[in-house]
Amino acid sequence: xxxxxxxxxxxxxxxxxxxxxxxxxxxxxxxxxxxxxxxxxxxxxxxxxxxxxxxxxxxxxxxxxxxxxxxxxxxxxxxxxxxxxxxxxxxxxxxxxxxxxxxxxxxxxxxxxxxxxxxx
Length: 120
Prior knowledge:
The protein is globular and about 45 Å long. It has a single domain (28-119), classed as Flagellar protein FliS (Four Helix Bundle (Hemerythrin (Met), subunit A)). Helix 3 packs antiparallel against helix 4 (71-93). By secondary structure, the protein is mainly α. The chain has helices at residues 4-14, 18-41, 45-64, 71-93, 96-119. The termini are far apart.
């Protein structure tokens, strides 16, 4: 049985549009990247790794949602591949600079999709 918070989250997600879900995923990735930076700076490598893996999971979800045959999908797939490479490297080396360099990408993508959502 779900608690009230879990029920609220479940209902929120099921009523979101696909673009709203994408925006939420980019936002969550951005939050987890910031957490990972914080955890590395405070030498909590286990929590940092957990946050980085969450971002990898988000990127995998975003990539799995791409529709083949569209130029934008191909471009995003390349970008997601780059993200995965960088996330793996950052996790192995506990490199905050790599993580910090990814944050603006997620913020910009979130903003772009938010703009699309407002125009749609």
